[in-house]
């Protein structure tokens, strides 16, 4: 630990006293450096500016300027300097006047080196404490300077959200060096629409740089205009507080400034922002109303699309002319997913989005309805016993929609989601049909010798209607049930004719034909020759 060394001046008109004090103490060990010794008070006063002592040890009774005058001068001009008075018994009442001027201590003559050392040790301890406090205060001030931008931002966020409304607002603004000098105020909220071309180059973890860039561009414009302050909220949106003396002038300048911000962002950052603009208020304590309406206006980007400057006053009329939301199209979508064409499904999605846009429902209500649509789609999949996830990613569709900022984006996402759904349904149906057809083939190959085998028997085995079975069997094999059964029987007959000595009527019986004559007709129709001729040829 570094020891503090302090500077001390000794003043006494008696040489032996002055020199005795100077030479009898181990000053370095006490933590002091003697920077001057004087025989009168005038020389002390003349040396103060140059020597800047921490402590003055002075006799009361000195020529030209006495110790009391030195004390008074130090008290008025160097209040941080510690003063120790040397005084005799007969001068004690005189020294008491000095005590009123915050003299640190006094010592009676004659004194010993031990007495003086004790007093100096106490003085050093007090100086150390004061220095520590000064250092701590300096550190605190430095920390305050470093954290001031965050303190300002937190204060401003509390101001616009209504968490802070107080009578001495001006004092707090002055303390934080925030200029909001005006008679009228307005809040706007700026949000990034998407990252445009930069989305390919900036990972999600660095996207805050883009939000900061928007705040920085907006801040530069308002610094130049000298009529607003810019900061970010906890969601990385840029908040602007504008102020002015004239309501109409403020209203006109708002339009120009936000158009400039839009242009600058497009030009320098290559993406777009939308801006929600609140209404004008006449008090800082009501500024949270303007912020709330600016946030509501920004939410209507969901209906109006991106790259917009949306004034709350402009959308009030639109909301008044809205029509009720109709869930008819939601139900129709669920039905169409099972049997409708892709074109029909896309048309229904467009009708749903159109209904949303006309309804002007609050954005959170829209998200709830969209989630209900997703749930109805999942119900369809559950009904069809389709368990596979539609997307290879781990994202949840019910929460994924919150990343969509406009209904146009929702429309594209929902069409794509329905496309994945219908593909999954079609794939599952195809797999089901294929499995049923394979089961039918297996059943026929195992029962072809049964003279009573029929399509009804196969359908009963598969638990399918005859019409549906006919469709899937023909699609899978390219043959009707009868033609397939006949082919299997004829192939088996060929094998028996070639490898056995069985009679024709015996072969007919083994492959499911009771009438040998009918077997001969079927065989000849299939091969172009009778069973007897076929056997001779092979």
Structural description of this entry:
- The protein contains 23 helices and 10 strands.
- It is α/β, with parallel strands linked by helices and about 550 residues long.
- The strands form 2 sheets. The protein has a 5-stranded parallel β-sheet with strand order 2-1-3-4-5, sandwiched between helices.
- Helix 4 links the parallel strand 3 (about 55-60) and strand 4 (about 80-85).
- Helix 13 (about 330-340) runs antiparallel to helix 14, helix 13 runs parallel beside helix 15 and helix 21 (about 505-510) crosses helix 22.
- The protein is elongated.
- The protein starts with 5 loop residues before the first strand and ends with a helix.
- It comes from Paenibacillus phytorum.
- InterPro entries: CdaR_GGDEF, CheY-like_superfamily, GGDEF_dom, Homeodomain-like_sf, HptR, HTH_AraC, Sig_transdc_resp-reg_receiver.
- This is Response regulator.
């Amino acid at each position: 630990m570094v020891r503090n060394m302090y500077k001390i001046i000794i003043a006494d008109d008696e040489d032996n006293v002055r020199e005795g004090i100077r030479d009898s103490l181990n000053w370095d060990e006490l933590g002091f450096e003697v920077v001057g010794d004087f025989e009168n008070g005038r020389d002390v006063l003349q040396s103060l500016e140059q020597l800047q002592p921490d402590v003055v040890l002075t006799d009361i009774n000195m020529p030209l300027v006495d110790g009391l005058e030195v004390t008074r001068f130090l008290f008025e001009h160097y209040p941080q300097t510690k003063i120790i008075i040397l005084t005799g018994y007969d001068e004690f009442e005189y020294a008491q006047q000095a005590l009123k001027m915050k003299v640190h201590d006094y010592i009676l003559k004659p004194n010993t080196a031990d007495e003086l050392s004790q007093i100096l040790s106490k003085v050093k301890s007090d100086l150390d404490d004061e220095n520590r406090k000064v250092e701590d205060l300096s550190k605190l001030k430095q920390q305050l300077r470093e954290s001031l931008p965050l303190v300002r931002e937190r204060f401003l966020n509390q101001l616009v959200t209504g968490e802070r409304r107080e009578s001495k607002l001006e004092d707090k603004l002055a303390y934080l060096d925030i200029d909001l000098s005006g008679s009228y105020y307005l809040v706007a909220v700026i949000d990034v629409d998407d990252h445009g071309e930069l989305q390919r180059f900036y990972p999600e973890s660095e996207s805050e740089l883009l939000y900061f860039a928007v705040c920085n561009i907006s801040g530069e414009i308002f610094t130049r205009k000298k009529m607003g302050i810019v900061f970010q909220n906890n969601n990385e949106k840029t908040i602007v507080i504008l102020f002015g003396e004239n309501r109409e002038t403020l209203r006109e300048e708002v339009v120009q400034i936000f158009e400039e911000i839009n242009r600058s962002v497009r030009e320098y950052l290559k993406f777009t922002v939308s801006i929600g603009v609140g209404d004008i208020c006449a008090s800082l304590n009501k500024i949270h109303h303007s912020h709330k309406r600016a946030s509501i206006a920004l939410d209507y980007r969901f209906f109006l699309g991106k790259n917009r400057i949306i004034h709350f006053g402009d959308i009030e009329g639109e909301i008044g002319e809205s029509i009720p939301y109709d869930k008819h199209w939601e139900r129709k979508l669920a039905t169409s997913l099972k049997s409708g064409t892709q074109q029909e499904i896309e048309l229904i999605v467009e009708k749903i989005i159109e209904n949303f846009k006309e309804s002007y429902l609050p954005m959170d209500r829209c998200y709830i309805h969209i989630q209900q649509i997703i749930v109805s789609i999942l119900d369809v999949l559950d009904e069809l016993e389709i368990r596979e996830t539609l997307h290879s990613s781990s994202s949840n569709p019910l929460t994924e929609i919150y990343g969509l900022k406009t209904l146009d984006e929702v429309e594209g996402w929902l069409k794509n989601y329905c496309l994945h759904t219908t593909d999954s349904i079609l794939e599952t149906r195809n797999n089901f049909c294929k499995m049923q057809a394979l089961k039918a083939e297996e059943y026929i190959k195992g029962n072809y010798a049964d003279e009573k085998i029929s399509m009804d028997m196969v359908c009963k085995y598969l638990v399918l209607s005859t019409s549906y079975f006919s469709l899937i069997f023909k699609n899978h094999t390219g043959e009707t049930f009868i033609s397939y059964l006949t082919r299997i029987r004829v192939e088996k007959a060929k094998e028996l004719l070639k490898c056995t000595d069985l009679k024709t009527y015996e072969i007919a019986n083994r492959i499911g034909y009771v009438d040998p004559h009918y077997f001969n007709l079927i065989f000849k129709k299939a091969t172009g020759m009778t069973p007897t001729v076929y056997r001779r040829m092979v």
